[in-house]
Write a structure and sequence with these properties.
mainly alpha, 1 helix, about 0% strand, rod-shaped
Amino acid sequence: MITIDLSIVAEIIGVLILIVVLNSMLYQPIRRILKERKEKMDSIEAEALKYEDRIKSLIEDYKRKLKEARQAGKAEYEKLREEAKQLEKRLLEESTKEAEIKRQELMSQLASQIEAAKKELTAKAESFAVEIAQKLLGRAI
């Protein structure tokens, strides 16, 4: 059986003193350290989330700028391509005109040479006819 005497009171006082001493020397510092640790971890986590959001926005900005650059490059490519087509068309037209002018000059030169040759042959045809007739007849005409 349990007997209640003065030693139980001393034990209770000792346990209370032990609780007070342990609370002030052990439990409170551990709780404070755990609280500081939790605050620091929350701070680090918040900062990590902030950096993660910043990274996401930078990636989105990069993708947007890349898309814009590609569109600008494609537009510039199409513009240069169209300019090249126009230049090609203009050069082709110029060279065709030059070739036509040269052809017409050559044709007129050729026509004048043919005309000159015809006149010369017409002028000489009569004398050739007379010479041939003289050779065939063997006498002067």
